[in-house]
Write a structure and sequence with these properties.
Layout: H1 3-28, E1 34-35, H2 38-58, H3 70-80, H4 85-99, E2 103-104, H5 108-133
Amino acid sequence: MGDLGIFASKFSVNSKSLKEYDEALRYLRGMDEITNAGKTGEMIDKLLNVINPISEAIKGKLSDSMAISEHRIVDILKNRHYIEWSLYKKRILELSSKLRADRFQLSYEDYELLNDIADALDAECANLFRRMSQR
């Protein structure tokens, strides 16, 4: 597979994950208490499909995810939050744990973090698209 094929494959996978992540974020927005069951549980899984590989990359572990380019997304987040990176990555890990609980509430700061992760995933999709266009 040539460079174009690799970029196209990564773009397809990342953009599909971004679409599902955005759908889940819209679904959960405004819920007071979230229960990890039924359709809500499915939406949480869509968030975790993105957040878990990022968490694993932050911990320095290899992720087996095929859903996103987690190392690139971590790099994007690190570049955006380099001053407070230590605190920021701790918040990501805490959010990942919170989303795996049976019942929880998302704070305003949690939604900001979720949106920031979506923005980083979107930036990676744009980068991949740009690289495909240059081929």
